[in-house]
Amino acid sequence: MGDGADNWRSVAASLFPQGHSIEQHGAFLTGSAQLNGKPVAVAGTCGHTAIGVEIALAQARAVLDIVRHHPGRPIVLLVDTQGQRLRRRDEMLGIHSYMAHLAQCIDLARRRGHKVIALVYGQALSGGFVATGLMANACYALQEAAIRVMALPAMSRITKVPLARLEQLAADHPVFAPGPENFRRMGGLTAIWERPAMHAQLTMALHDCPQQDFRAAQGAQRGGRKLAAAIIDAIVENRHA
């Protein structure tokens, strides 16, 4: 798949062979589609965009409009972002608050009974991924997607850990390593999708959409996050003791 902003069109065509009315407004995507004769709502981003305050608000507004006007309608989030926009203007306006607002809107949709499925089809980095894809009931990715919390050279500069050491750690520990398979091992991704069966995979994802958050348990089962589930269980047990 190429790097152009039109990548979403081929993805949408594969996901929704019965047709869609998704529109692109800059790097923001919104609209609806038909899936097995039933409507689903679609929102997301394209072109590896950085999410600034405008796109964060646009996505939040789209989700709230779906909740208000189409109660219970499934929502598909198309994720392609290089993370939050690193500009002084966005930082001064409080980009963290806008991202938190977006995450809360997606959480509201889930609590109101909307099945929210995210698909990483391009890039997924840092806060732009956390506030969208990781807020869905379940997140999936195409095999060719680029997913990481932070590039290892940047991680090395911030943590002062030598790059060679981080590369060594990444070979055995998925927490340090980029790529869909490592995020699947950690439970962040439910599964990795392959073309051309995306329509069938989306249909199954909505059918099997979890109502509870099983990512920590999946990470433990897959050997990617060995302690998170046990710590969560211990905290829950202690609260009820």
UniProtKB/TrEMBL annotation:
Gene3D superfamilies documented for this protein: 2-enoyl-CoA Hydratase, Chain A, domain 1
An example Gene Ontology biological process: carbohydrate metabolic process
GO molecular-function term, one example from the UniProt record: lyase activity
EC annotation from Swiss-Prot or TrEMBL: 4.1.1.88
Keyword Metal-binding belongs to the record: no
Record's keyword terms, sorted: Lyase
Statement: the UniProt record of this protein carries the keyword Disulfide bond: no
Top-level taxon of origin: Bacteria
SUPFAM superfamilies, A to Z: ClpP/crotonase
Name of the molecule in the record: Biotin-independent malonate decarboxylase subunit gamma
Species in which this protein is naturally found: Pseudoduganella ginsengisoli
Gene behind this protein: mdcE
